[in-house]
Specification:
The protein is an all-alpha fold. It has a domain of about 70 residues. Helices cover about 70% and strands about 0% of the residues. The protein has 5 helices and no strands. The longest helix is centred in the middle third of the chain and has 38 residues. The two termini are about 50 Å apart. Keywords: Membrane, Transmembrane, Transmembrane helix. This is Dinucleotide-utilizing enzyme. It comes from Microbacterium oleivorans.
Length: about 140
């Protein structure tokens, strides 16, 4: 039985997803705001050194935040895809094992051997390896 929680119930997964979205949104707002202010100041001819040089640094910070958000979203989607491949749905596991997920395999095997005919149990004992005797018969 799988003891790990589902990905939809994983708090770190949701923190990664929410943090990535927040980082991307905040970076987009900073980037667009600073670029718009720089553009209006430069086209109007009223730009100062602070507007241009400090605005560039803020725009770079916004772009970094957008990139971090995109990487976080890609990681979250990758985790979701990997989790989908590693854990089979309950119905598929039950069909593959031929048993209910909560029923231990030993109980199923015990039930199968009780229902088996006596000849099947005897055939199983015939397949046990026998010691090999050398030619002298010792």
């Amino acid at each position: 039985m799988n003891t790990r929680p589902r990905l939809t119930r994983s708090i770190p997964f949701w923190l990664l997803l929410a943090g990535s979205l927040a980082s991307g949104a905040a970076g987009g707002v900073v980037l667009m705001d600073k670029l718009a202010k720089m553009e209006t100041a430069l086209t109007a001819g009223t730009a100062t050194g602070v507007d241009v040089y400090v605005g560039q640094i803020w725009a770079v910070l916004g772009a970094i935040l957008v990139g971090v958000g995109a990487i976080g979203l890609l990681l979250a989607f990758t985790l979701g895809a990997l989790r989908a491949f590693t854990v089979a749905p309950r119905a598929q596991r039950a069909a593959d094992d031929g048993r209910v997920d909560d029923e231990p395999a030993t109980a199923q095997n015990a039930a199968a051997t009780e229902d088996a005919p006596a000849s099947a149990a005897q055939d199983a004992s015939d397949t046990t390896p026998q010691p090999v005797l050398d030619g002298a018969g010792r």
